[in-house]
Amino acid sequence: MKIDILLGLQWGDEGKGKVVDVLTPHYDVIARFQGGSNAGHSLEFNGVKHVLHLIPSGIFHKDKINIIGNGLTPTDNLFISKKAHLILPTHLLLDKFLEEKKGTSKIGSTLKGIGPAYTDKSGRNGLRVGDLSSPDFDNKYADLIASHKDLLLKYGFDFSDTLPELETNWLNSLNTIKKFKFIDSEYLINEYLDNNKTVLAEGAQGTLLDVDFGAYPFVTSSNTIAAGAFTGLGIAPSRVGNVIGIVKAYCTRVGSGPFPTELSDSSGEKLRKNGFEFGSTTGRPRRCGWLDLVALKYAIMLNGITEIVLTKADVLSDFESINICTGYKIDGKIVQKVPFDNEAVIEPVYITMKGWMKDISKLKSYDEFPPELKKYIKFIEEETNVKISIVSVGSDRLATIRI
Ligand code: GDP
Ligand code: IMO
Ligand code: MG
User: Fold this and answer.
1) Residues 113/219, Cβ–Cβ less than 8 Å
2) Residue 128 CB: number of other CB atoms within 10 A?
3) What ligand is nearest to the CA atom of residue 221?
4) Nearest ligand to the C-alpha atom of residue 109
5) Is the full-model pTM beyond 0.90?
6) Contact at 8 Å (CB) between 390 and 19?
7) Structure confidence by residue, pLDDT tens digits, 258-296
8) For residue 115, which of 126, 189, 223, 355 sits 20 to 30 Å off, Cα-Cα?
């Protein structure tokens, strides 16, 4: 069996959680492979909305195995890789301090400790879930906390009020983590595949936040692209089947960094209001703008996307006209590539399509779609050369239409 990978093709919050929940009945195992509690994946059924930060979005289906791979971590059907790194209380404080130090050039981090924890991972100082079973754990923990404190003190960051409570909560939470089964995810997942089990790897964040290929430094600290699944789970590229890209029918971004199609007018406000675009993790208002095909084609190339799931099409229902960005005008020239320079002044080149001006949230099949929506879908397919396999028209599980 091959493993399928599902990930976001924009700046996160494309609706990955909802789509994973919908697809889970087709898989035996759902595995998160990177990132940490900076993620907020929402899904909704029976009128109740659930937001998951670390736990894979297959968790609400009976008899499915859910795995947290080598990203960062917190019953019977949730396994955690021994090689997942732990986010320490001082990682949270370092994140806050380093972000404050950046002043106006701040990243807009979720402040969940992701950057400092990945720094320790790469610097070979980190503590992993598997270390929790080691007799040496307390010493290793004390050493790492002490080195973080030294750093904070050196810069005059006062943690006397905040750290004690953070540490107490963190140490208490270890009792909960220890109830889960710790696994060698690389062996287990490859064995599942050998035994004809179906596995879906669930990405967090989005391709344009990738630490290597996003607009660095306005990125997260992990590889959010398909390649992240290989290192995050211990599977080889030849094991991969479908790579499913989740795309919102427009764009949003939380935090700082380039966003060529951002709208600061009433249309942007309308997208935010219609789509309820507020962060699932931080509650911050999301920046909103039109769909950007230059960025989307870049994301499709980086991931080898085999099918697209288009989400939140219902949010565009009361727009008389809809813009799609088909090129970037930089220094008077129209280009089709995302520039290296974050300061580049980009004027998006748009084509304007007629909106469908019809509530589509109760529709049940593609045949019922208004012709303008069909045209919108076809245009994206033709431009990207990738088929749209599912259109999501609402946050509930049931508001999902297969094409
Ligand atoms: P994720 O991080 O990619 O899982 O996405 P989030 O959960 O952070 O953000 C997506 C938001 O849109 C959530 O509030 C979902 O409940 C909601 N959502 C998902 N799909 C749709 C859709 O098709 N239409 C509408 N209106 N909302 C949706
Ligand atoms: P999901 O999985 C949207 C953004 C932050 C910030 C940058 C760095 O729900 O799609 P970090 O906390 O990693 O230091 O923040 O990345 N960011 C996200 N934006 N969705 C997410 O996850 C995100 N996770 C991080 O807003 O701009
Ligand atoms: Mg989210």
Assistant:
1) no
2) 19
3) 2
4) 2
5) yes
6) yes
7) 999 999 999 999 999 999 999 888 889 999 999 999 999
8) 189
